[in-house]
Design brief:
The complex is a heterodimer of chains A (954) and B (204). Chain A is mainly alpha-helical and 954 residues long. Chain A is built from 46 helices and nine strands.
Chain lengths: 954, 204
């Protein structure tokens, strides 16, 4: 596919070279693999090209051409474009070589029926949905001034962000921005051509050549005075004007409009990077171009068009009459250029291959002539013809409306009536759609779908909230850095992490099982909770910690803390992880480590030989069954990671959907099979080094707790390691009974440690170390998972009673929505690189040996408002949480997780100190049945050194 | 129980790990196939709107983990199911042999009203593989289905989109029948308020 892209770009470049800009349409923007959904059509989504072209008469056209219409993307097709110097030709799109016969009312439709091309001055607004959610498609919906909408264009993320080299250059142009994707790029490009403003009330909505009235409606009537208007707007919780990053960037657009040279320059970068800009167009062309399509021009065109019946849109135009002074200036420039506005879907009516059906376009629009938008019924666009036109519009608009509403603080979900009555709907939804929705029972039912759409709403609410969170976090970070830099910034005391994020109403009646020890208390008692995250441990740092024998001369607990706070640089993971995963003792010298590696290799191959060199073992039913099970999973584990991607070896079993294998996959299998052998051996037989990582987290945690209470916490983790081995022997659980071979999820755990270790032997032992921390999750009785979910449940109850109640109401207290998180340590929730960072933080055991529970708590906390506002059932919560996958910000999560830990710790300290001092804790609220003592599971969590501030609390 | 404005059909897909449950669901809902779907951990679902007997219904299709170890989660996921799809791999005898236990397990955990009439559908997947690999004949599978009360049987390829649509049409149909039977307890809550209808007229 990338080949196609490249060749296309190359062709375009070549074309540009040969074309004189005065005669040829200029391609300003082009995106391959932009899909149009054909909802009712079985053929699925159709790929095509979304392009923005400048015609010879300075008219800008937004077009979508199905790939199918450009056979082999051949050059000739593009030459066809160039031959269309005709003023009346609004579409540059080349027809296919052998156009299909156009028969009315046929059931199956050709991709070409979806081709569309509109002058951009006919665009009323663009709804932009960045590729955030799980489906990874960003999409845009273009609403036209006449009330019609083009089908949603979906940008395949892979092409727009990963494979498209220009994105790098673009990031240079806007260094602070997020990676661009097609939709954003389109808006950026159009920005240079027309007046585009991002709505402040509805993130993702961009108004094109908006009237003053529209701008006011959308909260952007006057240019914001501050250069960063979003910042002040965004800090209030629940402020509807908060936006996600992409949209926020667009908001900055406003100030940018005042500097057209800059803008033009940026666009030049855009276009140069696309490799499509005509070299003969100087930067300044864009400044002029901005004025080329203007209100006045549009008006003139409209008046013409009213004669020839091209557009029936009038009333909205009147509303748009008022202009900002700046625009009026553009208007003057733009008055010179005029042409008929056209909505000319490309319908191929002749086999000559060059004639574009202008006649069709005229027919299509003629029926709308002269009628007001309220009365006329819109002629369906060709792409709608195979379904009820209204339904198609509603189908496309449905999510838009829903998404939009999700951002209007809380909307009650009663009936579609509310939806339609809402003032925003009236602004957004084209009037004829509103009217027809009212008339159509089918449409009404469809609107009622938003019952099942709450998951979607919740996502959007979360996106909005995320923005304000991010700002708060940045602010906090600045304060923190300022404070630690000796500035003693007083403002830092005002930032109580998530306390500010809570709605006031929540705080007021928030009461958990521990009574009034809530967020409010924490604030009032001055328990300043901040995370301590820093950058990763660098190779330089690491080697500086070694003495001449290669022995670490820093204490184990210090190193654990350091890794907890920042992780380690990837280059030294291969070494550092071996300490954390029990392969190297902390006090080993380099020479000892060499010996350990040799011994470990020997031991591993001894284990492996137990099956590898024994055909009778391999042929046993049990082994075969395990082998098959493992193979099935290994072949679908992290195949997108280059380390596991190749298919250089045949799939030995030939069983799983035919995907080929490779050496690393085969080693994954061997390791897992060998692990079965190892795990089945009684504990006593296994060689456990003294500092093998811990056995039972609970046991150890209890011990740690005692230590803390005795004031020995300063010794930290070093001691606890040693006191543990004894317990291991005591426990003596016959693991074989618990694990009984491979369990799904293990391959997920193995893949990263194997990839980091890079070889079979160390991969195996690192996996053994990791399994020591996670194996209880896989026990047959599921006791490990159950106890973790139980502990998490208690944490929620204490830290966020409101959320707890909500989950209870939703029948979601089983927390199965967090099952996957905990089973495989968030492996499916974060990208590969993040997983390594997260895991080493979890390896560190610095604050808690069960820090994964705080990570879970942090994610839940982040989304608690979205879940509480929009989700009402177990299924919805599960879906929402599952769909968070790959969209969670790791750094932020780790920061919050640390804060969660400290919050829980503060509450715990308070409960204990009050219980100790015999205070009548129950006096403040008699109604709550109060837990007088912390649950043991919670005490067990708090194993790390206490935060100084909290310890100093009176 | 909350009243539903529209019909939501809950469908549970069960079967051994690796038989193609996720693939079937994705082929049906998203018309996509990938041989890289990871092993499902826990459970997830997709929804799809379909017309069944002139009714627009929403299917909520639950994809579950195939390993027995995780069956204890089932009860939370199975509750309220309208149809259960049992999937096996025609090239894997064991996956067929465990259909019995999947069915029993479902009936125990979901405890539907009238378990004897609860709609199941059986799917033999991966018929795109070469015939020599096939372990379970159509005849054998159909015999089993017949013995369990005439369970509808389909042979599909999620990879090549063979028969998937048809199988799910039947699933939807049978689920709807189940749902309608249950629904009798709840009056249809859709009400159109004439007052609000007027409001639409001037919604501009």
């Amino acid at each position: 596919m990338s080949f196609e892209d490249d060749s296309l770009v190359a062709q375009m470049e070549e074309l540009e070279m040969h074309q004189s800009p005065s005669q040829q349409p200029t391609l300003l923007f082009a995106r391959p693999k932009v899909y149009v959904a054909t909802s009712m059509d079985n053929r699925g989504d159709i790929p095509g090209f979304l392009t923005l072209t400048e015609s010879t008469n300075k008219e800008y056209l937004l077009s979508w051409t199905p790939e199918a219409m450009i056979p082999d993307f051949d050059e000739e097709a593009y030459v066809d474009i160039s031959s269309q110097g005709d003023h009346e030709m609004t579409s540059f799109i080349p027809p296919p070589r052998s156009p299909p016969p156009l028969t009315k009312n046929r059931r199956s439709f050709q991709p070409s029926d979806y081709a569309v091309s509109v002058p951009i001055d006919q665009i009323y607004s663009i709804l932009v949905y960045p590729p955030r959610m799980r489906d990874r498609f960003g999409s845009i919906i273009v609403n036209l001034t006449g009330g019609a909408s083009l089908p949603a264009f979906m940008f395949l993320d892979e092409h727009s962000t990963h494979k498209h080299p220009p994105s790098q250059q673009q990031q240079q142009a806007t260094p602070a921005g997020p990676p661009t994707w097609g939709g954003q790029e389109l808006v950026d490009t159009m920005e240079g051509l027309v007046d585009i403003v991002g709505s402040a009330i509805e993130p993702g909505v961009y108004l094109v050549n908006a009237s003053h009235a529209d701008k006011v409606n959308h909260g952007c009537g006057t240019p914001p005075p501050s250069p960063l208007p979003h910042h002040s707007l965004g800090t209030r919780r629940g402020d509807v004007s908060t936006m996600d990053q992409d949209q926020q960037d667009q908001q900055r657009l406003y100030p940018r409009l005042d500097h057209e040279e800059v803008e033009g320059g940026a666009n030049t970068n855009n276009m140069a990077s696309l490799g499509t800009q005509s070299p003969s167009i100087p930067n300044t062309a864009f400044a002029t171009a901005t004025g080329a399509i203007t209100r006045e021009g549009m008006r003139r065109r409209r008046s013409i068009s009213n004669h020839d019946g091209s557009s029936g849109e009038t009333s909205a135009n009147e509303e748009r009459g008022q202009l900002l002074p700046q625009q009026q200036q553009q208007q003057q420039q733009g008055a010179a250029s005029s042409s008929l506005p056209r909505l000319s879907p490309v319908t191929v009516s002749s086999s000559s291959g060059t004639a574009i059906a202008t006649a069709t376009a005229t027919t299509a629009t003629a029926s709308t002539a002269g009628t007001s938008p309220h009365q006329r019924s819109r002629t369906p666009m060709p792409f709608e013809q195979h379904m009820d036109p209204l339904m198609s519009t509603v189908k496309e608009m449905r999510w838009n409306i829903l998404e939009r509403f999700s951002q209007v603080a809380r909307f009650s979900r009663e009936t579609a009536t509310n939806l339609l009555d809402h003032p925003l709907t009236k602004t957004i939804l084209p009037p004829h759609v509103q009217q027809r929705i009212a008339e159509s029972e089918a449409a009404r039912k469809m609107m009622e779908d938003y019952d099942s759409a709450r998951v979607y709403l919740a996502k959007w609410a979360a996106v909005v909230a995320d923005q304000s969170d991010r700002e708060r976090r940045e602010q906090r970070e600045m304060d923190r850095l300022g404070a630690s830099g000796g500035g003693g910034s007083s403002s830092s005391h005002h930032h109580h992490h998530h306390a500010g994020h809570r709605r006031i109403s929540d705080i007021e009646d928030e009461e958990g099982p521990l009574g009034a020890f809530n967020v409010l208390d924490l604030q009032m008692e001055g328990c300043n909770i901040q995370h301590t995250r820093t950058g990763p441990l660098t190779p330089m740092d690491w080697f500086s910690l070694m003495d001449e024998d290669g022995r670490l001369n820093e204490s184990e607990s210090k190193i654990r803390e350091r890794v907890f706070r920042g992780g380690v640089d990837h280059d030294i993971r291969i070494e550092v992880w071996k300490f954390f995963l029990g392969i190297y003792p902390w006090d080993s010298t380099e020479a000892e480590r060499v010996a350990i590696r040799a011994a470990k290799a020997e031991e591993y191959f001894r284990l492996k030989s137990e099956w590898f060199e024994h055909p009778e073992v391999q042929e046993s039913e049990g082994f075969q069954e395990q082998k098959l099970r493992i193979e099935k999973d290994v072949h679908r584990t992290d195949r997108t990671i280059s380390f596991f991607a190749s298919e250089t070896l045949p799939n030995p079993s030939g069983d799983f959907t035919g995907a080929g294998s490779n050496e690393n996959l085969e080693l994954l299998k061997d390791i897992l099979l060998t692990y079965n052998i190892w795990a089945a051996k009684p504990v006593a037989i296994r060689e456990l080094t003294k500092d093998q990582v811990e056995e039972e987290a609970e046991e150890e945690a209890k011990e740690e707790m005692e230590q803390r209470e005795e004031g020995q916490q300063a010794n930290g983790t070093g001691d606890k390691q040693k006191q543990k081995t004894k317990k291991e022997e005591d426990e003596e659980d016959p693991r074989a009974i618990h694990l009984e071979g491979y369990v799904q999820g293990m391959s997920d755990l193995l893949a990263p440690v194997f990839a980091v270790m890079g070889d079979e032997v160390m991969g195996f032992w690192a996996f053994v170390g990791l399994m020591e921390k996670t194996k209880r999750n896989f026990y047959k009785d599921q006791v490990g998972m159950q106890s973790q979910l139980e502990t998490l449940r208690t944490m929620i109850q204490i830290l966020d009673p409101k959320l707890y109640k909500h989950l209870e109401k939703c029948d979601a207290l089983n927390l199965f929505c967090c099952f996957r998180w905990l089973l495989i340590w968030f492996k499916r929730e974060f990208e590969w690189v993040d997983i390594m960072r997260l895991w080493e933080v979890l390896f560190s055991d610095h604050l808690s040996t069960q820090f994964q529970l705080f990570v879970a708590m942090a994610i839940l906390d982040k989304h608690r408002d979205a879940m509480m506002d929009h989700l009402e059932g177990f299924d919805e919560i599960l879906k929402y949480v599952n769909d968070l996958s790959m969209s969670i910000d790791l750094e932020e999560t780790l920061q919050n997780a640390e804060v969660m830990y400290r919050r829980l710790e503060c509450i715990a300290d308070k409960v204990q100190s009050e219980a100790a001092s015999g205070k009548a804790v129950a006096s403040s609220s008699s109604t709550t049945s109060r837990v007088k003592e912390l649950p043991q599971s919670i005490k067990d969590l708090l194993t790390g050194p206490p935060l100084v501030e909290c310890a100093d609390e009176p | 129980m909350a009243s539903r404005k529209k019909v939501l059909l809950k469908v549970i897909i069960l079967g051994e790990s690796g038989v193609g449950k996720t693939s079937l669901m994705n082929q049906y809902v998203n018309k996509k196939f990938s041989n890289q779907y990871k092993a499902t951990i826990g459970a997830d679902f997709l929804t799809k709107e379909v017309m069944v007997d002139d009714r627009l219904v929403t299917m909520q299709i639950w994809d579950t983990a195939g390993q027995e170890r995780f069956q204890s989660l089932g009860v939370a996921f199975y509750r309220g199911a309208d149809c259960c799809v049992l999937v096996y791999d025609v090239n894997n005898a064991k996956s067929f042999e465990t259909l019995d236990s999947w069915r029993d397990e479902f009936l125990i955990q979901a405890s539907p009203r009238g378990p004897e009439n609860f709609p199941f559908v059986v799917i033999g997947n991966k018929i795109d593989m070469e015939e020599s690999k096939r372990m379970i004949s159509q005849k054998r599978a159909m015999a089993w289905c017949q013995s369990k009360g005439n369970i509808p049987y389909f042979e599909t390829s999620a990879k090549e989109a063979i028969n998937v649509e048809q199988a799910f049409q039947t699933i939807a149909k049978n689920a709807l029948q189940q749902e309608v039977e249950v629904e009798i307890d709840f009056p249809d809550p859709i009400k159109i308020d004439s007052d609000t209808s007027k409001d639409f007229g001037c919604a501009c």
